[in-house]
């Protein structure tokens, strides 16, 4: 398959940012102004920010037509890509590939998706790499006839839709459990049903994790058979901690503590008040609090109760090098304490929903694998 430099196929441009000191460049603007952080959906048909005609005409910003393909050249979303469904301007961090009769927008979009890692590696710089329009012009793309491009894009689109359906199903299961909690118990912050409240430390045992030494300063602590959980593992667990990336050795375990399966883990640093229930015995550092419920509650009910307080706790956390809360703050929280039989009933219903969610997550993993496989084949002439 013929490989052609993008600069020989597309006119590539970038946008600009009107002066922030000029309110007339933004106030009551009607021209969509897209930033790199907006490059999340496949298609962009609206913007968060808008600029005025005056802002457009008195800056390096440009108005790009529909079907322009955008890619983030630097920043937190470097390599992210979207297709414009509207006329829009962009900031200078977006590279814009204007429509051409040689390549379909959707084909280019999937090319960028399939080669995102390689494109990011091209970036120059250290902690914040950036890609220039000049570098992008030299990227080579396989360029079959338009009808073949459309066929390849259609195959990838169907696989992508399957992924999205599975993602949406998981989101619906999450929304269902939140709705179930509110139906049964009301908002725990305002307590409209008037449930009894007790201090959090009255319904179980709260203790910080233990690690006398930082593993990065003592490699002999790592590499054994004892699972080690970090704050990021909890924040990304989806509610249940089912995997781990690090392990302690016998030496590591000796200066730490093993927590039993079923412990509710609560982060108190970096990620504030994020939670996950252990599905295996594990250690964790003192940036995590372990909660073991007594006869007055259970881990599932407690987890959902905390989820409604998470934003409040995060916003109120003092910040030094990083945000954190302490154990005494958790212990002194007012815990919503409805009758235990209702809490148990809630936990049982959640378990049923979680079982369905697990099936959807398995389906998502399979659809992700299919999509990524097709994406790799698509630009090697194998589709």
From TrEMBL:
InterPro entries: Restrct_endonuc_typeI_TRD (IPR000055), Restrct_endonuc_typeI_TRD_sf (IPR044946), Type-I_RS_S_subunit (IPR052021). Residues 2-171, 192-354 form the Type I restriction modification DNA specificity domain. Its EC number is 3.1.21.-. The keyword Transcription does not apply. SUPFAM superfamilies: DNA methylase specificity domain. Keywords: Coiled coil, DNA-binding, Endonuclease, Hydrolase, Nuclease, Restriction system. Residues 152-179 form a coiled coil. One of its GO terms (molecular function) is endonuclease activity. Pfam families: Methylase_S (PF01420). Belongs to the type-I restriction system S methylase family. This is Restriction endonuclease subunit S.
């Amino acid at each position: 398959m013929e490989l052609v430099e993008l600069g020989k196929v597309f006119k590539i441009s970038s946008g600009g940012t009107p002066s922030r000191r000029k309110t007339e460049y933004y106030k009551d603007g009607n021209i969509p102004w897209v930033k790199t952080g907006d490059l999340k959906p496949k298609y962009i048909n609206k913007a968060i920010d808008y600029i005025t005609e005056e802002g457009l005409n008195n800056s390096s910003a440009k108005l790009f037509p529909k079907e322009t393909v955008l890619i983030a050249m630097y920043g937190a979303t470097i390599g992210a890509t979207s297709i414009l469904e509207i006329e829009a301007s962009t900031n200078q961090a977006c590279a814009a590939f204007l429509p051409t009769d040689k390549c379909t927008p959707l084909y280019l979009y999937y090319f960028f998706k399939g080669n995102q890692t390689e494109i990011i590696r091209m970036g120059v710089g250290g902690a914040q790499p950036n890609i220039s329009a000049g570098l992008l012009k030299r990227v080579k793309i396989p360029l079959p006839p338009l009808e073949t491009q459309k066929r390849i894009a259609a195959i990838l689109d169907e696989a992508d839709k399957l992924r999205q359906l599975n993602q949406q199903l998981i989101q619906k299961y999450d929304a269902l459990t939140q709705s179930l909690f509110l139906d049964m118990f009301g908002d725990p912050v305002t307590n409209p049903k008037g449930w009894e409240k007790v201090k959090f430390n009255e319904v179980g045992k709260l203790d910080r994790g233990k690690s006398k030494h930082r593993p990065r300063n003592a490699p002999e602590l790592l590499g054994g058979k004892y699972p080690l959980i970090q704050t990021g593992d909890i924040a990304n667990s989806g509610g249940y901690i089912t995997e781990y990336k690090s392990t302690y050795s016998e030496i590591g375990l000796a200066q730490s503590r093993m927590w039993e399966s079923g412990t509710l883990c609560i982060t108190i640093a970096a990620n504030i008040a994020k939670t996950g229930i252990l599905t295996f015995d594990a250690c964790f550092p003192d940036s995590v609090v372990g909660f073991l419920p007594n006869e007055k509650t259970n881990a599932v009910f407690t987890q959902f109760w905390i989820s409604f307080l998470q934003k409040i706790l995060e916003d109120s956390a003092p910040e030094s090098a990083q945000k954190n809360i302490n154990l005494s703050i958790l212990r002194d929280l007012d815990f919503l304490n409805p009758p235990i039989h209702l809490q148990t009933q809630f936990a049982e219903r959640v378990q049923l929903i979680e079982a369905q969610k697990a099936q959807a997550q398995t389906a998502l993993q399979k659809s992700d694998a299919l999509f990524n496989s097709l994406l790799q084949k698509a630009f090697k002439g194998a589709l």
